[in-house]
Amino acid sequence: QVQLVESGGGLVQPGGSLRLSCVASGSVFSISDMGWYRQAPGKQRELVAIITSGGYINYADSVKGRFTISRDNAKRTVYLQMSSLKPEDTAIYFCKTESVYYSGRYYPTTWGQGTQVTVSS
User: Fold this and answer.
1) To the nearest 10°, the Cα dihedral for 40, 17, 50, 90?
2) What was the pLDDT predicted at 15?
3) Which pLDDT score is estimated for 27?
């Protein structure tokens, strides 16, 4: 079973930056597609960015040009660099790994516990 632990959230002023990190346990990180999602109060959870095991990247339109997703397979970590933050970016940010089947074992989709990002002056 993969476990994900996010960190890096906090309070930041509009226009500021934060970098979120998500560390995965286990041995299948390098072949797993990873994503960052967010959920604002009263809203549904939405995709922010994804990065596949092959390096394909996609962003939600609302964060294109401001957020950058990356991964370090040696550290089993996926990052979300957030710049030019806006109040509407305020949400709990979750890391997610997609299910993968490897070496005769199934690893299900897994979510982290989330980290709060608050953008306010």
Assistant:
1) 0
2) 98
3) 86
